[in-house]
Amino acid sequence: MATDDLPRLRVVSLAEVDDLAKLNEPVEPLARHQAMEIINDIKTNGKTALLQQALRLGDIKSLQDPIILGRADLEKAWLSLTDGQREMLQRTRERIEAFAKAQRSAIQDVSISIPGGSAGHTIAPMAVAGCYAPGGRYPLPSSVLMTAVTAKAAGVTKVWVASPRPSAVTLGAAFIAEADAFLAVGGAQAVAALAYGVDGVDASDIVVGPGNKWVTAAKSLISGVCAIDMLAGPSEVLVIADATADPQTIAADLLAQAEHDVEARPILVATSRNVIDQVNDALVQQLSILPTGETARHAVLKGFAVAVNSVEECILVSDKIAPEHLEIQTADAKAVAFRCKNYGAVFIGHGAAEVLGDYGAGPNHVLPTGGTAKYTGGLSVFTFLRVRTWMSMDDLHGGQVVVKDAVELARLEGLEGHARAAEKRLLPA
């Protein structure tokens, strides 16, 4: 393909950003309908339906293929990897675990005094987590590590990993992540099995992890039966750049997200049109020799660039879009980063490539997309934790003010039964 035929980021005006930043419906209607049919089948017919759906959708080649793998199977795959692969996965696991444990230590049990007693909260992990890892064009052992290691660091008792047609490196990643079992099935059928449980597969308290549109649709349908982390859409990266940034590096970082999927969104917000032109030239050059260029090319066509007059305007545009990944490639990048409000994860300065976050520098790579970073964060140990409150009233005399307030509030709300229950704690005058 001639370089002249390769796409560039289209340049849009500030006025167009508002429309581009509008939250999109994360679930495609047809995918939702198809996922519902699969889920209902597995709810009704259990493992038999799971096997039949897995066969129909290409997860297995026959109904006799094993779909449930235990620790021994995972260890066998782990031992089949090269020394270098095992060492790399081990190092990555350790970095993810260290960050997750630091997060866990940031939230503690609490106890305070209240009139007549004390109250507080305790932090407890969920019992069973289902961690989904995509298995499309390429294996994604990084997603196995990001989800399963984090669940274990939170204290989850039993962790399932699910992924279709798993490679040895995917199974090996599940082993080193200390996953308890592996479901070798993907799509809505895997989500259904994890949520409701089938013969040999525990019902999960939470299902997490990225996936295709059927996985997202299925997660939307099982939310409420169990918890989910988020409804993730196509990957996206937004780079804030000024004249100090390197156009070749920016182009490489944009293409790193663009090669994920034809629906991925690479976005550049720059302080001049000249920066955008230089990055577009670099995109054309790099796309012409990128092995995944065909996928990335389609994604670049869905991306865009915005030229503004200042870094402050860059921040305003970024906050409207609330990108999954935000890169700051400007002078005084740290100061700029901490003025930004809405993002899944921010990568500060030339050295902090977003791909380093993808591959286990420490923070999690399962992040909110489609503008949802305005109200939620990415996967973390907190995703797997429950905050449970408690109250003790040991000095009923000291607690009379609480009792009397409860009686009065209950009657204001028309709930006489509540008032009478509180009155049972009133002491004689």
Content of β-strand: 15-25%
Total strand count, please?
15
Mean pLDDT level: 95
Q: Percent helix among the residues?
A: 40-55%
So how many helices?
Answer: 16
How far is it from the N-terminal to the C-terminal residue, by CA? 91 Å
The major β-sheet equals: 6 strands, parallel
Poorly predicted sequence stretches spanning 5 or more consecutive residues: none
**Shape summary:** globular
Strands side by side in the biggest sheet? 1-12-11-10-13-14
What Rg do the Cα atoms give? 25 Å
Which structural class do you get from the secondary structure elements?
A: alpha/beta
Write up what this structure looks like.
By secondary structure, the protein is an alpha/beta fold. Strands 1-12-11-10-13-14 form a six-stranded parallel β-sheet, sandwiched between helices. A six-stranded mixed β-sheet has the order 2-7-6-5-8-9, with helices on both faces. The radius of gyration is 25 Å and the shape is globular. It contains 16 helices and 15 strands. Helices cover 44% and strands 17% of the residues. The longest helix is centred in the N-terminal third of the chain and has 28 residues, at 29-56.
Keywords:
429 residues; alpha/beta; six-stranded parallel beta sheet; 15 strands; 44% helix
Summarize the structure.
Helix content is 44%, strand content 17%. By secondary structure, it is of the alpha/beta class. The strands form three sheets. Strands 1-12-11-10-13-14 form a six-stranded parallel beta sheet, sandwiched between helices.
